[in-house]
Amino acid sequence: xxxxxxxxxxxxxxNRIGEAHYERLIFTALCLVLFTxxxxxxxxxxxxxxxxxxxxxxxxIFFFGFGxxxxxxxxxxxxxxxxxxxxxxxxxxxxxxxxxxxxxxMIMTQLTGFLREKTHSFTSVSLLMAFSSIVAMxxxxxxxxxxxxxxxxxxxxxxxSKMSWKxxxxxxxxxxxxxxxxxxxxVYEREVQEPKAPSKALVAESKxxxxxxxxxxxxxx
Length: 221
Description:
The protein is an all-alpha fold. Helix content is 79%, strand content 0%. It has helices at residues 2-17, 22-42, 59-83, 90-119, 123-150, 158-161, 165-193, 200-220.
């Protein structure tokens, strides 16, 4: 349900970010999945079969939904990036991807069911899934390093990434002060060019002053 709403949003986000950061997006998705399984490791299994875990066990599902949606959205574009200009093997790559995905789903389903029956707990299942997420994150990290070597593009400019925290703080402070000064100058220029209209009280007072001499002249006559 979460993925159905999140996939269009993530698709638009991926188009804006560009293919230089596909690996980082996959790493982010895997982090969300790992957070879900780690959260279930911290929750104890119900002792009574009729006991319910409560609303707390539903909270990590939201992160799993977002992680699964992001991962599903980025897999297709990632294959296009990996293939590159050799589009003749694109169909074969997608076929192998789906075959591998289906095989892994079949194996993991049987394995997690076997562990659940043998241990009578979901702890071993969560450990297995968390371990799988860590392995995938390690592979994705290697892909990020390799992608940065080939096309070094960063979410933060390279000159900023090399700065120390003190230098970065000084730079941000200077930029903010320059922005404040430019805004104050702009406001001053507008006030000079466009003088404020007199208030209603001043207009009424000036009219009274104009009417008063006329009344005095009529009384004199």
